[in-house]
Amino acid sequence: MPNPDRGGGKLPAGLTTRPSDFSASPFAYISRRDLVVPEGLRLLVFSPHPDDESLAAGGLIQRVQDNDGKVCVVFVTNGDGYPEGVKLRIKRAVASSNDFIEYGQGRQEEAVQALCELGLPREDAIFLGFPDSGIDDLWETYWSRGKPYTSPYTRFNRPYVKGKLSRWVKYAGVDLEAEIARVLNDFKPDWVVIPDPRDHHPDHATTGVFVLDALRKLNQEGELSFFCTQVLTYLVHFRDYPQSDSWSKEIDRAGVRGSSSASKVLAGTEWLNLPLTSDELNGKRRALQAHASQSPVLGYFLNLFTGPCELFGHLDSAQIMAVPQEYALCFNRADAR
Ligand SMILES: [Zn+2]
């Protein structure tokens, strides 16, 4: 039976929306519908760096828990490839690999504190420890385990923080995708929240593509169904986002990482508001404050994300299947199909 709340049948079962209260939404120029979070939802959030989870989904993470759901946050990198932040911390012009490693470990602890402010215990965080500022390199150049990527910051070519990782994981595209697939299989999310593949930050865009490719393969292998798993995207780095509407005029023409790949596929993505309560907004502010190392370098930018709504793009199954294939073909990847 058609669901009258699905915008003429465009959204699949499992994702419910309702008309927005326009006066409450700063995104009324792009979205006229609100996301409805059901009871008992399993939410998996992928965060390229510590702080993206709070910036993009701090409100959603709290809402899911308030509705008796379960949340897991996956940090793809430790945020250890940030020279400006490291130099500010050590108060020296030249940073050593150890300085970068310690910076990343500090950001992990900040992430744990931020999740605590959002109501999540440490056990609900997974740190994959892949290289900050190197996720796009894994996809584009260092796909195979035979020639792993070495971080120019930490000098490691594999995750250096012990955690729930396979023993032989290297900084290779196949290994990152295998880790993402393992997390998806273990957690079995109803909703997966990822960086939008059109985000201008290479780590963000490529994290989104990696997760979509893992979902595509799991679907083909029969391990996961798009009828049960919904994919939502978020923007952090895009022209004037979120403070003006100029980004909304560009997003439908934007491809992945400056190429035109997948621009047609992604055009027309359905955007949905999540209006936040004052309690959720306060929790989100506290979570962002917990990322204390970022305030001196990015404080103004972080504050832009403490508006009354969060915004998510919904990808349908055709988009999930096509985006990673089109982007892999840009690099002549043999396993693009
Ligand atoms: Zn980030």
From TrEMBL:
Gene3D superfamilies reported in the protein's UniProt record: LmbE-like (3.40.50.10320)
SUPFAM superfamilies in alphabetical order: LmbE-like
Pfam families: PIG-L
InterPro entries: GlcNAc_PI_deacetylase-related, LmbE-like_dom_sf
Molecular-function annotations in GO: hydrolase activity, acting on carbon-nitrogen (but not peptide) bonds, in linear amides
PANTHER family: BLR3841 PROTEIN, N-ACETYLGLUCOSAMINYL-PHOSPHATIDYLINOSITOL DE-N-ACETYLASE-RELATED
Protein name: LmbE family protein
Taxonomy of the source species: Bacteria, Pseudomonadati, Thermodesulfobacteriota, Syntrophobacteria, Syntrophobacterales
